[in-house]
């Protein structure tokens, strides 16, 4: 299995959009759905200790945040109870569409994230970190995300990160970021996953063979018709 750099991840995505004529909305939908499937595998409803199957989904302003929105919508369909915290919304129509879809599914949005960590531990079973993906520059996190990350470093409930754990350098193993229990890699695992010791899924089984060959991805076998595989 090859691990892909930040640069390679961007080039692969560009090829999917330009050469293969995938739509950005289409990709985000595929990834978000696959993330929800990975969450349901890692945290089945029956395994939650709390009475309500509550999940907190924290979404950043860029593409990774949109994947989080789609993931939340599918989790709602899978009978989880997601709540979304989406502090920095953008004017991009597509991202607004994903937000509307969640609102129409009666998924609640938080107006602020409690800094009292115990409140988060008590209210939710898990946190899904869809904050900073490969598109964010490491070390350039700004508010409100620096505060959110310092809160997430203290939570006791499990964190599942989408593609790249927020605050990690895409190309290097983690130094002092958050510690997710689950990592859901999209397309191909990134270099930062090298030292990751939690449950690791590869989600979204749609990459054309020519792209896999061209970038020497050596993706693992997916079981049967599953769209995700545990690495």
TrEMBL record:
SUPFAM superfamilies: YjeF N-terminal domain-like (SSF64153). Pfam families: YjeF_N. InterPro entries: YjeF_N_dom, YjeF_N_dom_sf, YJEFN_prot_NAXE-like. Residues 9-219 form the YjeF N-terminal domain. Gene3D superfamilies: YjeF N-terminal domain (3.40.50.10260). It comes from the Eukaryota. This is YJEN3 protein. It comes from Polyodon spathula.
